[in-house]
Amino acid sequence: MILTEYHYKDFKFIGNSEGGIHTSIAIPRLKLMFDTGVGSPQLVEIPKILLTHGHLDHASGLAYLISQRSLRKLPPAEVYVNPAIYEPLDQILKLWHKIEDYQSEYKLIPIDFNTIYPLQGNFFFRAIPSVHRVPSNGYVILEKRNKLKKEYLNLPGHVIAELKKKNPDIIETRFEPIITFSGDTQIEFVIHNEIVQQSKILFLECTYICDKRPIERARKWGHIHLYEIIENQEYFRNIEKLFLIHFSTRYTKKEIKDTLKQLLPEWLYKKTTPFLTKKNFHSEILMND
Ligand SMILES: [Zn+2]
Ligand SMILES: [Zn+2]
């Protein structure tokens, strides 16, 4: 399996995403991956898995990755999942232990939507409900920053230093959204969540881009159409970098690139990168979707 790599600022993103085929994107620096796809052997060493939903193109590799980690004597994977699929996934994993006749260790954690989970250093994450045909959620990576409260911003440095000694309250702690990963969702994931609109980097699904697969069809299947991103472009003003993922395999790479260039307003086009596979993961078979 050939993995695709993109870099933005201090982050490297590695993986693949094709609608209905395979979606798994890792951030090695944060030692996590969003979704497992069908399971990439190259990503076995990534210890944290943040699953968005249980569709097989996003989650079928879970048992494989867990088993491989165990066989390689790596610490058990920490797997965060939507609470609605915690039980069935746990059962599947246990059944697979029986089939394999090998007890792999894993930590399956049903996410709590009100909790901010630590990652490493100043990085944390939380889950945000998304809108799909099955229980689903996206994830936001947050960076914890200590900032001077607004009312003190214009004071000279030595005054601030004095104030800090007397009153540590002039500093406030904020969690800034750095990276958001949508998983599969309808456009409401962006429209209804300010935290998504304020993320520096947004990975957003964009399954359809043509008239043959219109907006109604995208919505019926719980997906986003490129036209909806254009209609709702104002929600993307503050995003620094937009990675579009999960394109249907009915489109060639050239069609995707040309359509984005042709249809997106220039300011949005400039910050948009389609997350394309180097070679179609599933090159011979065109999905009949
Ligand atoms: Zn999908
Ligand atoms: Zn799905």
| Spatial ordering of strands, largest sheet | 1-2-3-4-5-6-7
Q: Provide mean pLDDT, rounded.
A: 94
Number of helical segments with 4 or more residues = 10
Q: Provide the CATH top-level class.
A: Alpha Beta
Which outline best applies? globular
Overall domain count: 1
Describe this structure in words.
The structure is a single chain. By secondary structure, the protein is of the alpha/beta class. It has helices spanning 56-59, 62-71, 86-100, 157-166, 188-191, 194-197, 215-220, 226-231, 253-263, 266-269; strands spanning 4-8, 11-18, 22-27, 32-34, 48-50, 77-81, 106-110, 117-120, 123-129, 137-148, 171-181, 201-205, 241-245, 272-274. The longest helix has 15 residues, at 86-100. The two termini are 23 Å apart. The structure holds zinc ion (2 copies). One zinc ion is lined by residues 53, 55, 132, 184. The site of one zinc ion has 7 residues, from α1.
Keywords:
289 residues; alpha/beta; Metallo-beta-lactamase, Chain A; seven-stranded mixed β-sheet; globular; binds zinc ion
Summarize the structure.
This protein is α/β, with parallel strands linked by helices and 289 residues long.
Topology:
Blueprint: E1 4-8, E2 11-18, E3 22-27, E4 32-34, E5 48-50, H1 56-59, H2 62-71, E6 77-81, H3 86-100, E7 106-110, E8 117-120, E9 123-129, E10 137-148, H4 157-166, E11 171-181, H5 188-191, H6 194-197, E12 201-205, H7 215-220, H8 226-231, E13 241-245, H9 253-263, H10 266-269, E14 272-274
Parallel strand pairs: 4-5, 5-6, 6-7, 11-12, 12-13, 13-14
Antiparallel strand pairs: 1-2, 2-3, 3-4, 8-9, 9-10, 10-11
The protein binds zinc ion (2 copies).
One zinc ion binds at residues 53, 55, 132, 184.
